Amino acid sequence: METTERWIVNRGLRTVRRCLHTAAAVIVSMIVLGTLALGSGTVPALGSALSPGGGVWSSAADAKGITSKTVRLPGMGSRTTVSFDSAGVPAVHASSDADLYQAQGYLHATFRLTQLDLERRTAKGRLAEIQGPAGVKSDTFELQTGLLRTARSAWSAMPKDGPDAKALVAYSRGVNARLAELRESGNWPALFTLTGLYPQDWTPVDTLAVQSLVTQNLNYSISPLVYELLRQSLGKKRTMEFFPVIPANEQSPYDPGPYRDLGVSPLPATDNVNAAVPDGGAARTPTTHASSADVDSMNAPASSAAGTLLERMKQLPATSMFSYPDSNAWAANGPKTAGGTAMLAGDPHLATTLPSFWYQIALSAPGTEASGASLVGVPGILVGRNQSISWSLTNVQNQSTLFYSEKTSSARPNQYFWNGSWRDMEQERYTIPVRGGSPVRLTVDRTVHGPVMTRAGQTVSVTWMGNYPSRSLKAMLAMNKAQNFREFRTALADWHSPTLNFAYADGRGNIGIVAAGHFPVVKAGEPWFPLSGTGENDLVGTIPYAATPQAYNPPGHILATANQRPVGPSYPYYIGTSYNAYDTGYRANRIYQYLESHDRMTAADFTALQNDVEDYLARKIVPRLESALESASLDARQRRALDQLANWDYRMTESSTGATVWWTFWTNYLSAVFQPWWDAKKVPVDKAEEDLTVSPLIPSLNEDLEVWTLRDPDNAAFSPPGRPAGDADSAMRAAFTRTVSELGSELGDDPASWRWGRVHTREIAALSGASALSYGPKPAEGNHWTVNAAEGGMNSSFGPSWRMVVTWTGRNRATASAIYPGGQNENPASPWYETFIADWWAGRLRPMPLANASRSSGVVWTLQPKG
Residue range 547-572: average pLDDT? Predict the structure, then answer.
């Protein structure tokens, strides 16, 4: 009876929440309609969108649920079935890969069409067409960076009889079949009816552009620009002490060596960048030799251009560049698992949004049997399993973006000096349509190093690994079919961008990690700063695939990747610095600590670790803080606050008070040590707020302060310019005093009431920006460094975007579970809008079977050839 009552209550709550979302969708629509009906500012009138029984109101057409149907699709080779489970996860059964990927395109377009179109617009520089002038900056940046050009070049160079080209054509056919249905019925999602702008047919170039947008979000880094501003303010010596290449603290690389120096692999030529020709022998434009007067005609310091670029970039959408892409993945085998075979866990961290980046699906066709998370806009499965292997991924976070300061002269407009000669810049022109405004004309200049991003003082161009041709889709599709580690690793040789750590486990008991992608190598110089564009610092190639970080069946039977530096200090290649490249290592250290202390682990143990909120750094620092406060004269409230820390278990739980004191203290401690340096040296924080503000979000500063506190308490950093000489103890005491004062003012006089959930929340934000269609903010556990990560600030909207655990019990035998914080349908009125959030929030996983083992809800779509 209790179970029945609980079911009734839960069902009632779900019904109420769905009704609230339906109401919110209507309210938001009414507000928007009120503006659009008559037109306002840059928004023209859209009266036709308001027609009763159609127009915007049809966006809720699937709110009643999905029913079985038969659909005839042009180009479908034979009958394909799509069986949905109760949460809307489809299992697709097809007789060929072509039919399989066409069905996947049809499903993505059916349930995520608005998301598809917005991703395509962002990638191709067409946001302003729908957003008006507010979208021009994003469009300008993307067209300058070259996502559209790269996508076109990649499609042009791709063999049309290859598996990736065939999959792209089939996927596009599926999207377009859905578009044809909507054109006939008029039942468009709200965005299109409201704006009067309807999607054009999908093309393979669109998928490649969307794929490039994801790549950009994961590895387009602005760190050399930040380093340049730091060098100009702090000085080079202090900059490299605070932000060293090799992290100051102890970390846990998954590939500890020994290493091999295998030289350099050449990069393919590309239309966007020609840095693969370091000797200048393949220049594509006439050249003239420079006179001494020309060469001496130099621009302003690079710091001016760096500041200008950073100010522009901080106004761009979050998808424009690298931002908190932390993730976890680990594997165990042998005596570390209960069955003695292998286990894998993975939770890629991305922005948590409604709808999600992910669309869960199971795919079945001859030679393909895979289940997991697909990226909307891309065929295949990026994270998941097949009948023989399983895989997940984390961001390698190596430096993939190089900035070049070009020599130019006012006497030679549209030229630059490279390898002893003046050369013409190549140019490409675009027109950006602007809703409610005049079109914007854009000219993109390019040097051999890539597109010119600014001419403010110093002409700066960018070499980005995402602008090189990549067969990453081919690699992913081959990975979906791989049956063992050799095939898995071979498939990833074609993966070039973004650089990712692919974690692996299979039914034969093997585990491994492979870092796949382009790791750039320059001829000379310090690539963490902007480099000279005259030729001596050019890119010469990449680290050979055989020399990238990799591990297979280690003697300890465990492997983990959590964005830590994947190799030790003796690794022979430069791959990035401690600043905004690699994570602090605290999550990885905690994962290894847990795995090393557990034997005969089960899926429940892996799930518990995914939900673990112990702060690794706190366990090391809090005892040191207690020691520093022993001789301090504390008032009653300070002693009560110290008691909260003394009795704390180092877990960042919602109800914990020690968690609140700890995080506030550490933030203030960082500020006490570094902010005086920032103030004295006038570090230009306003140019790149988040990237230069003293905070726990900058990995290097945490690593430095950890090491100085524990091993070097008299470091000169504790004695900033213009301040009395200090040490770790005095800085800690000052930070603790400030912490208690701040928390007392904000949360009340009683430290026992300073619960973490009062100051720390999570939010799963609607992509539309409408708060009524979001989930949260709600009090939440975790922080930036816990395995169950809550990143991006005190109201976190970034963290585990997908959680998965796969347990292998033998060859071709596994149990798998997964969850993501969202739902399959982007329509807020649908019962599948936020289906998985409650389970995700509670740390629960749902079964993730292969297509043949999926449980149908009875809703089946039959996709027939259209004769």
Answer: 98
Rg (Cα) of the chain, in Å, rounded? Answer: 27
CA atoms within 13 A on the CB side of 487: 15
253 token code pair: 């690389």
Q: Which residues contact 20 (CB under 8 A, 6 or more apart)?
A: none
What letter does residue 132 receive in the DSSP assignment? Answer: G
Q: Which domain holds residue 55?
A: 2-218+360-368
CATH number, position 181: 1.10.439.10
CA gap 657, 662 in Å, rounded: 9
Do 587 and 522 share a domain, yes or no? yes
Q: HSE-up of 397 (CA within 13 Å, CB side)?
A: 28
Question: Do 57 and 191 share a structural domain?
Answer: yes
Which domain CATH number covers 722?
1.10.1400.10
What average pLDDT does the segment 757-785 reach?
Answer: 93
280 pLDDT tier (thresholds 50, 70, 90): very low
pLDDT in tens, 591-630: 999 999 999 999 999 999 999 999 999 999 999 999 999 9
pLDDT in tens, 778-833: 999 999 999 999 988 899 999 999 999 999 999 999 999 999 999 999 999 899 99
> Is residue 460 domain-shared with residue 558, that is, in the same domain?
yes
- Dump the DSSP string for 747-761: H-S-GGG--GGGT-E
Read off the CATH number of the domain in which 587 is found: 3.60.20
**656/720 same-domain check:** yes
Q: Calculate mean pLDDT across residues 746-752.
A: 98
Q: Provide the domain count of the chain.
A: 3
Question: Does 120 fall in a domain?
Answer: yes
- Shared domain for 707 and 639, answered yes or no, is yes
Question: What would the pLDDT profile of 697-734 be if each residue is shown by its tens digit?
Answer: 999 999 999 999 999 999 999 999 989 999 999 999 99
HEC letters along 319-346: HHCCCCCCEEEEEEEHHHECCCCEEEEE
Order of all β-strands in the sheet with 459-464: 426-432, 440-447, 450-454, 459-464, 401-406, 531-532
Q: Are residues 223 and 161 in the same domain?
A: no
